[in-house]
Amino acid sequence: MNFNRAVIKVGSALVSPENKGCSGKYLLAIARFITECQQAGKEIILVSSGSVAAGRQLIKHGSPIPSIPTKQAMASVGQMKMMANWQRFFDVPCSQLLITHGDLKDRQRYINIKNTLRILLENGVIPIVNENDTVATDELKVGDNDNLAALVALVSEADCLFILSDIDGVYDQDPRDNPKAKLIPEINEITAEIYAMAGTTQNVIATGGMKTKIQAAEKAVENGIDTYILNGSRSNIFEKLLKGENPGTYFKAKQAANKARKHWLKYILKSSGQVKLDAGAVNAVINKGASVLPSGVNQVVGNFVAGESVDIINANTQQVIAKGICQYSKQDLLRIMGSNSDEIIALLGCCPSKVIIHRDDLVIL
């Protein structure tokens, strides 16, 4: 298991195999795998489909393909059942995050999601993410949980993505039509030919198929995240994963996740201002791997909002020592600089973050 933080996406076919409420048929093996990963020091974020299927029997509907409002009502009641079903398999607490594409596009909400996930993982909680189907409109929806899982992997800075469904992986032909179809164990480049191999879903509740899984894999590998498409209904695949084997289709990341992010921070993201640090803070950032705290800031230059990139300056030498994503706007930072983190809430009335720039969000230059 050559990863530190993974996102595991679980499809509707595993959460509700009969489309008649939640089931533990396949989830027990998945939960056991997650627990063993945690015991090995790995961090896991779960992206779970199944809220519509979980609530299907509780909302009256007269069609095998429910209307959008009916599906939203099913999701509303099904969310509770799905979360309760997951929690019963774990001794550690689970949390629920319902997000939309609008949340991921908005700079401040993106930062809030990232901070929430970070704190949950630091406290040993398993975040369970789903799209907010009860309120999302078409323009706000990601559309499927495969692509949502890839976006969550990006937000959380995961280095591995597991997409679990009821199919073994990517085949060279549709295995439903051709019994001689061969599983492709590794894909190093996603081409038009790879997409042409994708079939369509036959599940009336599911919103994705192999195409959306390949789309998700493409998003992930472009950002340094190794991706697997696996058959989560086969419990032996988890034993193979724990042994370092590949029981499905593996998409190789184009570069290390950390390297991809550092490159993005260093060369692509433009700085909108400067945060100048005293000698003690400079030493802590460069030599101790510390985050930037408000107590170490003695000057702010430029005009930036929370979530924008800033240069980190040694106030004594005026040298740029690092670059990172600031958790606060210039106006708020001017009010809290030089103060202790515990004083932020008294100064601002709220405390979005106890650090100005988290260590994970900066690169030393």
Note the topology.
Elements lengths: L4 E6 L1 H4 L11 H13 L3 E6 L2 H5 L12 H20 L6 E6 L1 H5 L1 H16 L3 E6 L13 H12 L3 E6 L20 E2 L4 H5 L13 H13 L3 E6 L4 H7 L6 E3 L5 H12 L2 E7 L1 H9 L9 E6 L6 E6 L4 E7 L4 H7 L7 H5 L13 E3 L1
Parallel strand pairs: 1-2, 1-5, 2-4, 3-4, 5-7, 6-8, 9-11
Antiparallel strand pairs: 7-8, 9-10, 11-12, 12-13
Helix pairs in contact: 7-9
Q: What features would you describe in this structure?
A:
The strands form two sheets. This protein has an eight-stranded mixed sheet with strand order 3-4-2-1-5-7-8-6, with helices on both faces. It has a five-stranded mixed sheet with strand order 10-9-11-12-13, sandwiched between helices. The chain folds into two domains: 5-255, Acetylglutamate kinase-like (Carbamate kinase, 3-Layer(aba) Sandwich), CATH 3.40.1160; 269-364, PUA domain (Archaeosine Trna-guanine Transglycosylase, Chain: A, domain 4). The chain is globular and about 70 Å long. It is α/β, with parallel strands linked by helices. It has 14 helices and 13 strands. It has helices spanning 12-15, 27-39, 51-55, 68-87, 101-105, 107-122, 145-156, 192-196, 210-222, 236-242, 257-268, 279-287, 330-336, 344-348, and strands at residues 5-10, 43-48, 94-99, 126-131, 160-165, 186-187, 226-231, 249-251, 271-277, 297-302, 309-314, 319-325, 362-364.
